[in-house]
Amino acid sequence: MSVCRSSSMKLAGFSCFSCIFSFLAAGKPVQIGSPEQVPAVSGDDVILPCTLNASIKPSGVLVEWSRVDRSPPVTVHVSRNGKELVKEKAKAYLGRTAMMEDSSSLKLYGVRHHDNGTYRCHVRQPEMEKEVFVSLIVAEVGDVWMVIHRTSAGRLLLSCESSGWNPPPVLTLLDAQRNVLAKMESASIGPDSLYGVRSGMDEALANGNGTLICRVEIPELELAKESRMILSGKNN
Predict the structure, then answer these.
(1) Which of 20, 23, 82, 155 has the lowest CB atom count within 10 Å?
(2) Adjacent-strand bridge partners of 67
(3) Is the CB of residue 163 less than 8 Å from the CB of residue 195?
(4) How far apart are CA 193 and CA 221, in angstroms?
């Protein structure tokens, strides 16, 4: 089984919306544009970017990261003059955050599905106040397996299944040249609220030697897993 990840499960190529930010003369920040989207796989460590045009100096700077899709907002990380104010953060984020060096970006360790949401980076220093909003999308990625079995009539049947995904994935059966042989036939939701998919084909398509590939992916996040099976004449 292989994990496709275009340099780290294809997260590096993910297209993000650009964000433009400005602030009023009174110092109250205003956001213009859409939050930047950051995709991640459950269990990974991720960096929530907070890029500002102005340079940030540790002295006199307050950086506050909060989750703003909750009511009231949840404090994730607070740093004043380069030092973290641990007592200010919510218990759910204790030991899970760190400011990136020479930046207001935040590293969040061991993300899970419940970390999905919109985060705000609020930077305040003398004569400057700005905000950056980031949308974190945490995906659950399951296992992929392929099985060959024979019917009582002697027909060769191949099936591919996968479970434990969120958002819902797409399944495709491919040959060695990556031509599409079959697509997803059914989908289901398990008791854990995660999605499963399956597809199959008979010996009319599977007949002969060659490599068969089962690919399960979340296209919008460019996440994919594959399983391969080599068919030989012994299977017939």
Answers:
(1) 20
(2) 74, 119
(3) yes
(4) 19
Please report, for the chain, how many H helices and E strands are present, in that order: 1, 20
76 conformational bin, left if phi > 0, alpha if psi -120 to 50, beta if neither: alpha
C-alpha triplet 70, 138, 229: angle, nearest 5°: 160
84 beta partners: 79
* Secondary structure class of 81 (helix, strand, coil): coil
The helix or strand, by DSSP H or E, that contains position 205, with its residue range, turns out to be: helix 203-206
Residue type, 192: D
- Number of residues written out for the chain: 236
Contact 147, 159 (CB under 8 A): yes
Tokens of 2: 């292989």
Task: Return d(Cα 76, Cα 53) in angstroms, integer.
Answer: 23
| Tens of pLDDT, residues 70-91 | 999 999 999 998 899 999 999 9
Dump pLDDT digits (tens) for 129-157: 889 999 999 999 999 999 887 777 777 78
Tokens coding 109? 């360790």
Task: Give pLDDT tens digits for 91-119.
Answer: 999 999 999 887 889 999 999 989 999 99
Residue 18 or 27, more confident: 27
The pTM assigned to this predicted structure is: 0.70
Identify whether the C-beta of residue 215 lies closer than 8 Å to the C-beta of residue 179.
no
Rg for the chain, CA atoms, rounded: 23
- pLDDT band (50, 70, 90) for residue 18: very low
